[in-house]
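Hi all, long-time lurker, first post. I run a small reading group and we've been trying to get comfortable going from sequence to structure in the token notation. Rather than ask abstract questions, I figured I'd post a concrete chain and ask someone more experienced to write out its structure so we can walk through it together at our next meeting. Sequence below, copied exactly:
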Amino acid sequence: MSAVELRDAEARVGGRTVWRDVSVTVERGAFVAVLGPNGAGKSTLVRAVLGLQPLAAGRASILGRPPGGANGRIGYLPQRRSFDPSTRIRGVDVVRLGLDGARFGVPLPGRRSRAAAARVAETIDLVGAGHYAARPIGELSGGEQQRLLIAQALVREPQLLLLDEPLDSLDLPNQIGVAALIRRICRERDVAVMLVAHDVNPIISYLDGVIYLAGGTAVEGRPEDVISTEALTALYGVPVEVLHASDGRLVVVGAPDLHGHHAH
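-- Answer (accepted) --
Happy to help. Here is the structure in token form:
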């Protein structure tokens, strides 16, 4: 059973068709990037997977159930920027919110609380945040904050992880570090990951696949097959050229809405 499967899907927002005829599959344990220019519908795709954006046409299966039916097995990290430096909540408490943040009150002592604390500590160790998790999260760097937020999304042991632009506020070394962490989690925990990104270059070596949204539809496949002159020219409907820089970066040029997208 695939983690995510959409067939001939269409999404409409405010009476406008965002994308249509979208057929994509994300296998269990796969690390897939969702790419495309601003307004192409990347976040709409994430919302459709969560069941927050009903499909106007087509069908979808998420962990073997209709969208929204398996959300208890999905970890979700929405778009965000950095925490305010004055935020005093500890990193470990941010992670704990992933377990019981939907319940009112302070967790009561007992066997369940001890098991929850052990699960939080295990997840913090998994993302390599043990030496700073007890500090206020507002004092931490962007990369440290992001690792703790990924831990929050992982603490309930999801089978699918949805990350909406988690790298945008990070510098290049932290982007690469977080990408490597996510790839390791995919392999060790058999978690499928869909990561929305603007620039594929920092993460391309870690990816199993790409879903590229543009021109009101999408194409999926291996990174080298999707991010190619032929595939993107067909997707955009205008001449697009994919160049390979001497340092290994991909440079995408040619379409009018690609300014600032990928590395120029």
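A couple of things your group might point at:
The CA atoms of residues 123 and 155 lie 6 Å apart.
The first strand starts at residue 4 and ends at 13.
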